[in-house]
Amino acid sequence: MQKNLSEEVGTVSVLGRGSDLEVTIVEYGARLASMRFRGREMLLTYPRVEDLAEDPFAFGAVCGRVANRIENAQFSLDGREYMLSVNDPPHCLHGGQRNFANQRWRQVAADGQSVRLQIHSTDGDQGFPGNLQTEVHYQLHEDGALDIHFSAETDAPTPVDLTSHGYFTLGEVDARNLELRIGSRHFLPKTRANVPSGEIVELRPEATLDQRRSLAEHELRWTQADLKQHVGFDHYFPFHRTPLMPQASLWAPNSGVQMQLFTDQPGVQFYDGFGLGGAFRPYAGICLEPHNFPNAINQPGFPSPVLRPGETYQRSMRLVFRSLS
Tens digit of pLDDT for each residue in 113-136? Predict the structure, then answer.
């Protein structure tokens, strides 16, 4: 089912209507506007879909051209220096002021179980080189799984790193009640400027997130290990598990819902929502954003985010929901 609400939000598509997992996607930011599992909302959402047009938090959006921060909004590629849009001073966050999250994508196909959306970013957009054609494909399966596949092509070398930016609640009012496991034994420490230092640090067993614990317990253990660099979690964790295993899992103790994340990305940014504001309380939802290492374009020791002409950027993630009660 589809309808057009406004010039900003665009076409609204509902996948899997009446099934255990029902997903609402809008053209604005190619966003996951809602994910309802057995009638219960899994995401932090606005009362009206139209409210997404004024959203400052990228709720459910596809972020790009490059997810996370690029230090000092600049990078060097093939001997040329590029200056980017600054929207998290002094850095470029999620692609700049007018990034993919706050633009209207174009729906090119939909059939009730899947939808494809595209966006064209011109050479010089937010300071990035090359014309970039990007597509996201949402595919809903009958077993309660949602596949999200990203692809992109360019006519000039450029960094590309796309992710989905949903705030998960699994029906909990306070996301700190959620239990979390991330398949990682390492993390990327940050500088005072809130970007990775370039180090990859192995966590002691008592501080690893590769154990199922509540968010409050994880935070306590990190505080005791003197790993906290600010009030909450906003860190990147490289995976040690294969894509055939869930790289991250969430459990909601009150609703009995479990969510598993599968992805071919090398790691995940875990943000616990401590900075939410306005109509939303801090910790009202958490983000699990699978993408490449943050600021990889400026760190030779990190996996390269550079896409070149003739290549196709392809990355995928799968969200699987189950009721354990």
Answer: 999 999 999 999 999 999 999 999
Say if residues 63 and 94 touch (Cβ distance below 8 Å): yes
Three-state secondary structure call for residue 202: strand
The set of catalytic residues is: 165, 289
Nearest-angstrom CA–CA distance, 111 and 295: 37
Cα torsion angle, 301, 305, 310, 311, sign: positive
Q: Residue 258, Cα to own-chain centre: how many angstroms? A: 18
Q: Quick one: DSSP state of residue 8?
A: T
Instruction: Say which residue, 182 or 245, is predicted with more confidence.
Output: 182
Residue 22 CB neighbours (<10 A): 18
Residue 70 to residues 90, 94, 139, 254: CA-CA distances in angstroms? 9, 8, 30, 38
Predicted model pTM: 0.95
Whether the CB-CB separation of 152 and 160 falls below 8 Å is answered with yes
Distance CA 222, CA 240 (A): 19
CB 146 within 8 A of CB 21: yes
For 253-267, how does the pLDDT look when each residue is reduced to its tens digit (9 = 90+)? 988 999 999 999 999
Question: Residue 186 has which token pair?
Answer: 């390492």
Report the DSSP beta bridge partners of residue 36: 22, 41
What is the residue-wise DSSP string for 143-194?
Answer: TTEEEEEEEEEESS-EE-B-EEE-EE-TT-SSGGGSEEEES-SEE--B-TTS
Alpha-carbon separation of residue 210 from 48, 179, 184 (angstroms):
36, 11, 6
Are 34 and 24 contacting, i.e. CB atoms less than 8 angstroms apart?
yes
How many whole angstroms separate alpha carbon 254 and alpha carbon 174? 11
Q: Residue 70: its pLDDT value, please?
A: 98
